[in-house]
Amino acid sequence: MKRIFSGIQPSGNLQLGNYLGAIRNWAQMQNDYECIFCVVDLHAITLPQDPLEMRDATREAAAGVIAGGVNPETCIIFNQSQVPEHAELAWLFNCVARLGWLNRMTQFKEKAGKDRDGAFVGLYTYPVLQAADILAYKATDVPVGEDQKQHIELCRDIAQAFNSMYGKDFFPLPEARIQKAAARIMSLRDGTKKMSKSDPSDYSRINMTDGPDAIAQKIRKAKTDPYPLPDSLRELDERPEALNLITIFAALSNKDEQSVISEFAGRGFGEFKKCLADLAVETMGPIGEEMQRLMACPEEVDTLLNVGAIKAREIAEPIVKEAKEIVGFLGPRI
Ligand code: TYM
Q1: Is residue 143 in a domain?
Q2: What pLDDT is attached to residue 155?
């Protein structure tokens, strides 16, 4: 059976993009693959974090994955720092990946901003750790949103370079599995920017924990334009906010964008937003409630992550041990 690995950062405010771009696909693929889903706390500290908030955010991310439909009985769900093989393999890959490859990573440029010299070294080598996450399990498929595509390509480059440096076909070249329907959900305030948990405006996103009133209000206030909905997708090329709301409607209702446009052609955004709000409350409401329930039981979530980490380690440990042997490290004799 093919093996999936994917990850999500515990940086608080899980949002609709995380759900539609990632978690929902994880849930849909879980019966056809062996699945490993990771709350990537090692990645989170590449930007400054408050230790107390990190713990809650880690539980929130795990709760989001489970409430979003991933079954913790059949899938492995854990937090990254409980499995030391991730960091260990990342070091081996730091000595395979080239500076030039990392210099091309657009997320580093975005996240480091203007003060590059002030950024943590970890932020720069972040994609190397991401490659280690995936390859510590020899995962073959990585379901992610569009923004992660470049990192998965780098992971393939690292796998290939390791195999050729050491003359052994050891690591697979994993495929990014990006669902077209919701590959990139955009901000509700600016249709050219990705919806993100780090956007300072809460009105830019629908949080997975938002209740019905907040969801409806955010959709009502979402930026649009004064024109009615057109009857073809092409006419939305210059209307990113309008296109984003159509994309969200289509993704939430499992329809394609063109059929949503055809349904609402000629109608104003007031009416469309009302239907979208009803749909979003209906689909996201129960998920948010289940998340809140899980977050109110931290011991339950912590135990689940502990159990997941033990299972994850059973897979990663022998793979990383073999990688170390391939590199030429002496291991214990006894
Ligand atoms: P993160 O935590 O930013 O996001 C988790 C997942 O949600 C997707 N996503 C979106 N999809 C569509 N529209 C959006 N607006 C949107 N926002 C987020 C992301 O594409 C991602 O799939 N580096 C990763 C975490 C990671 C990882 C890994 C992923 C670490 N190691 C190994 C896969 C495999 C990240 O920061 O995701």
Answers
A1: yes
A2: 98
The rounded distance, in Å, linking the Cα atoms of 219 and 221 is: 5
pLDDT recorded at residue 181 = 84
Query: Using CA atoms, how far apart are residues 77 and 40, in angstroms rounded to an integer?
Result: 11
Helix, coil or strand: residue 192: coil
Give the pLDDT means over successive 10-residue stretches in the chain (334 positions): 94 94 96 97 96 96 98 97 98 98 94 92 97 98 96 98 98 95 93 93 97 96 92 90 96 94 93 97 96 96 98 98 97 82
Question: What pLDDT does 332 receive?
Answer: 84
Q: How far is the CA of 144 from the centre of ligand 1 (A)?
A: 6
Check residue 113 and give left, alpha or beta (phi > 0: left; psi -120 to 50: alpha): left
Q: Which atom of ligand 1 is nearest to the CA of 134?
A: 32
Tokens of 72: 């913790």
Pairwise CA distance, residues 179 & 256, whole Å? 12
Find the CATH number of the domain harbouring 214: 1.10.240.10
Which one-letter DSSP state was computed for residue 200?
S
Nearest-Å Rg of the Cα atoms of the chain is 21
pLDDT, residue 283, reads 97
**H/E stretch holding 236:** none
CA dist., res. 108 & res. 46, Å (int):
10
Is 174's C-beta closer than 6 angstroms to any atom of ligand 1?
Answer: no
Q: List active site positions.
A: 111, 194, 197
Instruction: Indicate if 177 and 263 belong to the same structural domain.
Output: no
Q: Which domain holds residue 23?
A: 3-183+298-327
Asked whether residue 106 falls in the same domain as residue 230, the answer is no
**CB contact at 8 A, 323 and 329:** no
What percentage of the chain's residues is helix, strand, coil (to nearest 5)? 60, 10, 35
Q: Report how far residue 307's alpha carbon sits from residue 141's, in angstroms, rounded to the nearest whole number.
A: 23
Cβ–ligand 1 distance for 18 under 6 Å, the answer: yes
Round to whole Å and give the CA distance between 79 and 244: 32
CA distance 293 to 273: 29
